[in-house]
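Hi R.,

Here's the chain you asked about this morning:
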Amino acid sequence: MAEDGYKVLLNVYDLSQGLARQLSTTFLGKAIEAIWHTGVVVYGHEYYFGGGIQSAPVGTTPYGTPLRVVDLGLTHVPKDVFEMYLQEIGPRYTAETYSLMTHNCNNFSNEVAQFLVGASIPDYILNLPNEVMNSPMGPLMLPMIQQLETTLRAGAVPQAPQFRPSVAAQSAQTVKSAVTHNAAESTKKKDEDVDRKSKTESPKKTSNAVPLDPLGDARSKVQEEISSEFAAIMATGTLRASEAAALATKRVMQRYGHMNTAQI
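And here is the predicted structure, written out as tokens:
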């Protein structure tokens, strides 16, 4: 009731669906609990930032069931005043202003929570980008993050008349060809290394050998597979770029998750 205030909740989701906890140590060198997405629940709706400010009746967002729900308190702000506030900040929360590291859904939830109840959302959610970038492998992921941001800004909400399947299909083929070429080059290099080893009489003469980087190779392979999967999904013309990126990452991470489980 308005006399007692409106309850304000924070729905917290794990976009990786458990894969971050399972694979983060392997690929980042540091344990990450989840890839957090949040939405603020008030007035019977959930408000969140995704290709612009969006809202949906509670329980109907595309993110499914929240991993946890945080009670932020009560607000006495009327719904019409809140909606006017959202219109005011709307230009700052668009597909073009989205940044995975500094201006994402969790930053939106935090700003809305401060407006409604004068409190911030939990620090462990807001600090996730810093955790990733401060991990041993975090800085190496920056180019991939910047590329994904560019893709999301360009096609997060594609207009049907502008969508060209043939261009997407050509992009998918280009990525696949690049991956195939890289795989062939990698195989050729390994064969040459084996030949050199077999011709070497003393196994101790390794001072000039280039040190191997298994973790770096694995990370590069995962990034290539995600790019290939993303281009293939976009070629179907059935999903937005943001949805295709999430699905591509999920598919590749699941494949590696199954591989790791099978090897144990």
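One quick note: The two ends are 54 Å apart (CA to CA).

Cheers,
M.
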